[in-house]
Specification:
435 residues; 2 domains; four-stranded mixed sheet; 13 strands; 37% helix; inositol-3-phosphate synthase activity; Myo-inositol-1-phosphate synthase GAPDH-like domain-containing protein; Myo-inos-1-P_Synthase_GAPDH; transmembrane helix
Length: 435
């Protein structure tokens, strides 16, 4: 593909975020501050990373925007949905992630972002108790109201394109069910029949986004778009989808460090991971049914990197444990602690310990920007369905498990996929060389 075949990023790009909490307000505030020249979007691949294109005498390193047509920060407009009615300024203050000096210069713009009523079912997030919610009788009504929200937003802001991102709480786990999730027709009928235990509210957001020709990104471990029915719908609407669960802290470390063990052919006996966090995400995950959704996401990383069937001597008996503990005093300042038991020559044991004291929303915010800009790019480049090149940003990357496909969780393989997608969209050849 030549870059000339990619539709230009003309006009405004609307970013509609499900959730007006710590992550989304940190993201929105950062973008507003960055385009005023008052902050730097550090951590965003689209703003800082460079990719090598060409070889030998033709070799050069370019920012993404110099390879492909990306939307600019000045052209972004925002909207949110949330169960709480506080505007984005109030929500940013409440989150206590950013200091006043990094909020007040864009106060007026934040105050203008008032969350739309959320499509919400308390059975999916029992610890959340907001009153800014839609009074829909069925899941299909949820879909119709969300579609109208998207249409209204486009009309009011006159944006030419919209991306929808989920940055809300983790829902209870909804396993794939062939009776409801296999085909688009089944999914639509379940929505109309209001089969609530099989149709999560997040599925209504995803369906509404795709129905309105908007890419959809699942930033939680919810199985929302990780079902064949949604794959079918994304292909029918020729829209990109990606997920699931923003890869910010501990899993980022795991996906980068596990390849060291594998590449060095060291053995892995066990990996114990625990987290403490005190924000709303921690509160929701304190509910066992919601934690299970996160646990499934976080547990999937290691076993696809250190494969037992390929190296039984090294990885045939890994004990992998993940815990999350709600600890209010930490608020958004999450701590991830890993104990890794490895073994080497002649089976002698060794240990590695990693203590990552991070800021959850500070790490997540640039991912939202990258995913919004890159999914918009994918749509303009005619790429639709599951966007595997966005796996770099995800804890539990989407893949076609119905035919035995495994997710790529190795961070460095994911980075190669990301760079090659940018190269191909920009009209350059794919390249496996690491540099």
């Amino acid at each position: 593909m030549k870059q000339s075949e990619v539709a230009p990023a003309t006009g405004k790009l609307g970013i509609m975020v499900v959730g007006c909490g710590a992550v989304s307000t940190t993201f929105i505030t950062g973008v507003l501050m960055a385009r005023k020249g008052l902050a730097k979007p550090i951590g965003a691949m689209t703003q800082y990373d460079k990719i090598r294109v060409g070889k030998n005498a033709e070799k050069k390193y370019l920012h993404y925007k110099d390879i492909v047509p990306l939307a600019e920060l000045k052209d972004i407009v925002f909207a949110t949905w949330d169960v709480y009615p506080q505007n984005a300024y109030q929500a940013t203050i409440y989150a206590e992630v950013l200091q006043p000096k990094d909020i007040e210069p864009v106060r007026d713009e934040l105050e203008a972002i008032r969350p739309l009523k959320a499509a919400f079912d308390k059975n999916y997030a029992k610890r959340i108790d907001g009153d800014n919610v839609k009074t829909c009788l069925t899941r299909w009504e949820m879909v119709e109201e969300l579609r109208q929200d998207i249409r209204n937003f486009k009309q009011q802001t006159r944006c030419s394109r919209v991306v929808v991102l989920w940055a809300a709480s983790t829902e209870i786990y909804v396993p794939y069910n062939k009776q409801y999730h296999k085909t688009l027709a089944q999914l639509e009928q379940a929505m109309k029949d209001d089969v609530r235990e099989q149709i999560a509210p997040s599925m209504c957001y995803a369906y509404a986004a795709l129905a309105e020709s908007c890419p959809f990104i699942m930033g939680a471990p919810n199985t929302t778009v990780d079902i064949p029915a949604m794959w079918e719908f994304a292909e029918k609407m020729r829209m990109p989808i990606a997920g699931k669960d923003f890869k910010t802290g501990q899993t980022l470390v795991k996906s980068g460090f596990a390849p060291i063990i594998k590449t060095r052919n060291l053995g892995l006996a066990g990996w114990f991971s625990t987290n403490i966090l005190g924000n709303r995400d921690g509160l929701v995950l304190d509910e066992p049914a919601n934690f299970h959704t996160k646990e499934v996401s976080k547990l999937s990383t290691l076993e696809t990197i250190c494969k037992a069937d390929e190296q039984p001597d090294l990885y045939g008996d890994i004990y992998h444990k993940v815990r999350i503990n709600y600890y209010p005093p930490r608020n958004d300042n999450k701590e991830g602690w890993d104990n890794i038991d490895i073994f080497g020559w002649m089976g002698y044991p060794m240990q590695i310990k990693i203590n990552f004291l991070c800021r959850d929303s500070i790490l997540a915010a640039p991912l939202l920007l990258d995913l919004a800009l890159l999914s918009d790019l994918a749509a303009r480049a005619g790429r639709y369905g599951t966007q595997r090149f966005l796996s770099f940003f995800m804890k539990s990357p989407m893949h076609d498990y119905t035919c035995g496909e495994e997710a790529v969780n190795n961070l460095f393989e994911q980075y190669t996929m990301l760079k090659n997608a940018i190269r191909e969209i920009g009209g350059y050849e794919a390249d496996e060389e690491i540099d």
